[in-house]
Design goal:
Layout: E1 3-5, E2 11-13, H1 19-26, H2 30-38, H3 45-57, H4 64-71, E3 76-81, H5 88-102, E4 106-111, H6 116-127, E5 133-136, H7 142-149, E6 154-157, E7 165-169, H8 171-184, E8 189-193, H9 200-216, E9 219-223, H10 233-242, E10 247-250, H11 253-266, E11 275-280, E12 293-296, H12 299-311, E13 318-321, E14 324-326
Parallel strand pairs: 3-4, 3-5, 5-6, 6-7, 7-13, 8-9, 8-10, 10-11, 11-12
Antiparallel strand pairs: 1-2, 12-14
Length: 354
């Protein structure tokens, strides 16, 4: 039997309950148990109810791997994200898990920590045990991406590559909204504080900002790259202020929040001295000081769409989700006299407060 008694006299399970255990307890053949649990219409209702009651009493759980051997399917999917600590991924994970569960699948989660090497390692280890992979903000070079896609169905989030299905947020339209908002406020110059150089969305955002800035007659400067974290906002803020731009646009909200903290420390008022904008509208972007103007996208909807595409028949599908600009207190009309290019982080300006 799969149970024993511990020192307190209470039963404790020492190994998983098997089909053989259920069959022995129910007094039927193993094949009958298998049919009663996986194909119940093939046995009588009396036998089915009896076997299922025994299975529940023994706390039987089907072995997914064993079930997968004949069909090659595990009913499991994997989602690999570039940074599990980024609040932007919370909604993505929730939406993907809910949609996978609704379709009868279990979702496995992996964190690549922004490393192509770690992402590849996760894909190799997990790929053989799942029926499909979602790669969110993948850093893999295209040859490695194709190697992964050659083994299991793959859908990309905020990344596009020939031959792969993808779900992306509309970076072009989000960037247009930022530029038009800043143009309406009279800003003559903006600086983009770029993210990781191997991030597809960084290139998309930077190119769109530059294109729409040119159309609006606004001077554009691209700076960086910077790691997309709060801690690296300090360096990004210093470089951004030194550029002389009247508005700073960060690759994501984490970087933008770090920029806000640094500017407050330096005594540079936001938005009176300089405006700051982010992307993603993460949880907390409206709690920082001042609340952050940012581009929002439906991350939970994206998670659901990714699973739908992964389980669908179209392997070249492309879903583009809308974005919108949330205007908060970190943007205002351009200052008459923006911070000087010669500003020094530890100089007199550090004594001023917003």
């Amino acid at each position: 039997m799969p149970h024993s008694v511990d020192s307190s006299g209470a039963p404790s399970r020492t190994e998983a309950v098997t089909l053989h255990d259920v069959a022995r307890e129910a007094g039927v053949a193993v094949s009958t148990v298998s049919r009663a649990l996986s194909n119940p219409d093939r046995v009588s209702s009396r036998t089915r109810e009896h076997v299922q009651a025994v299975a529940r009493r023994l706390d039987y759980r089907p072995n997914r791997i064993a079930q997968a051997l004949p069909s090659g399917r595990t009913r499991m999917l994997a989602l690999l994200v570039s940074d599990i600590t980024n609040p932007h991924n919370f909604g993505l994970i929730r939406g993907a898990e809910a949609q996978a569960r609704a379709a009868g699948y279990t979702l496995v989660l992996g964190d690549s920590q922004g490393s192509a090497e770690l992402e590849s390692d996760h894909a190799d280890r997990i790929g053989s045990a799942v029926d499909g992979l979602v790669l969110a903000s993948s850093r893999l070079p295209e040859d490695a991406l194709r190697a992964v896609g050659g083994r299991r169905p793959v859908v990309l989030y905020n990344r596009e590559a020939d031959g792969f299905a993808s779900v992306v947020t509309d970076s072009d339209d989000g960037s247009r909204q930022i530029v038009e908002h800043l143009a309406a406020l009279g800003h003559p110059s903006i600086a983009y504080l770029g993210g990781p150089p191997d991030a597809w969305s960084d290139a998309e955002r930077g190119q769109a900002l530059e294109r729409h800035s040119a159309a609006a007659g606004i001077a554009f400067t691209r700076l960086g790259p910077f790691s997309p974290t709060v801690d690296h906002g300090e360096a990004a803020a210093d470089v951004g202020i030194a550029s002389g731009a009247t508005a700073l646009i960060a690759f994501n909200d984490l970087l933008a929040i770090g920029v806000l903290r640094r500017l407050e420390h330096l005594g540079i008022a936001v938005p009176a001295d300089v405006s700051v904008v982010g992307y993603d509208d993460i949880f907390g972007s409206d709690f920082c000081h001042p609340p952050l103007t940012t581009v929002t996208s439906p991350s939970e909807q994206a998670g659901r769409a990714l699973i739908d595409v992964l389980l669908g028949s179209r392997h070249d599908a492309r879903v583009v989700l809308p974005t919108s600009l949330r205007v908060r207190d970190s943007t205002a009309p351009a200052p008459a006299h923006p911070p000087s290019r010669s500003h020094r982080p530890d100089g007199p300006a550090a004594s001023r407060r917003p």
